Amino acid sequence: MKITVFGGSGFLGSHICDKLSEAGHAVTIVDVQPSPWLRPDQRMLTGSILDEALVGEAVAGADVVFNYAGIADIGEANNRPVDTARLNVLGNVMALEACRKADVKRYVFASSLYVYGKSGGFYRCSKQACEIYIENYQAMHGLPYTILRYGSLYGPRADARNAIHRFVQQALSTGSITYYGAPTALREYVHVDDASTATVMVLEPEFANQNIIISGNQPMRVGDLFKMIGEMLGRELTINYQNDPNSGHYQITPYAFMPKVGRKLVPPLTVDLGQGILRVMEAVHRDAHPELQSEGGYLVATDD
Questions:
Q1: Residues 6 or more apart from 129 whose CB is under 8 A from it?
Q2: pLDDT tens-place string over residues 66-107
Q3: Where are the domains of the chain?
Q4: By the 8 A CB rule, do 283 and 164 touch?
Q5: I want to staple 13 with a disulfide (CB 3.0 to 4.6 A). Which of 2, 8, 60, 261 is the partner?
Q6: What ranges make up the beta strands (E) of 70-198?
Q7: Which stretches are annotated as coiled coil (predicted)?
């Protein structure tokens, strides 16, 4: 199939583009920045999802359109509410309208578990608004969709906006971690490779007009996660808990009573949380020490 991915240069989007290409699909990536991970068999269009002409060009002839564009960090969304509404909500509507005109067969949207509850701030507001628009485009114009509500992602290509990446980076550089909440906060971390594998699975007909949860199957309290990171590093970490009720993040669960529910999809093969965090540590350490080279699984200094 011909598939267009808005936001395909980002953390999750780039992994999904890789999986789609590996599955034999013709992938067009649309993003404000060229993808550092662009493959020879992928097409790149550089520009904003708010550019109507570009969006129309990107969607023309596509069988499926993925929308992973916009502001995805809760803190950033809370600090930039107008930009969040513009990029997340208006950008989503512009993509939907282009898909309607181009007779696209499926619209796949990256939402969040935060739509289930009252936490998440302006990020949650934008995702809820987007879901309502998507459902109404299906009802009014017959545009099939799949809404994917992701849990706590981690893995390669993430930056400091990603929680586990930030925790590991802080632990390696300072021996301490600052966390906005409490040690009892519960998360279901899911490796980005597992999440992208599950994402490609939703192209099957049975997932049309469905709301799907993609999260991990290893629930862990944040305090225990920090202990795991400390044990892996062989050091006692200093943890600074902020217990900030205005952070926008949930503590135990993102769920509040709401009438709509979604199916949960867990990929058959998963990356163990410990192994996944170890990979993050290796990547962060490698970035911090470019003078070292990998030999036989070890980072060693090269002789000049």
A1: 88, 89
A2: 999 999 998 899 999 999 999 999 999 999 999 999 999 999
A3: 2-301
A4: no
A5: 8
A6: 106-112, 145-150, 152-154, 176-179, 186-191
A7: none
The whole-number pLDDT of residue 250 equals 45
Sign of CA pseudo-dihedral 101, 104, 105, 108: negative
Q: Are the C-beta atoms of 68 and 20 separated by less than 8 Å?
A: no
Q: How far apart are CA 143 and CA 124, in angstroms?
A: 23
Q: Give, for 5, the enclosing helix (H) or strand (E).
A: strand 2-6
CA 106 distance to own-chain centroid: 20
What's the average model confidence in pLDDT over 219-234? 92
- Residue 18 structure tokens: 């890789």
CA quadruple 155, 13, 163, 278: dihedral, nearest 10: 0
Reply yes or no on domain 2-301 having CATH 3.40.50.720. Answer: yes
Position 244 confidence tier, pLDDT thresholds 50, 70, 90: low
Distances in Å between the alpha carbon of 223 and those of 196, 208, 284? 27, 38, 21
The phi and psi torsions of 267 (rounded to 5 degrees) equal -60, 150
d(CA 158, CA 73): 12
Q: Dihedral angle at the C-alpha atoms of 153, 154, 156, 157, nearest 10 degrees?
A: 60
Q: State the residue for tokens 């998360």.
A: 187
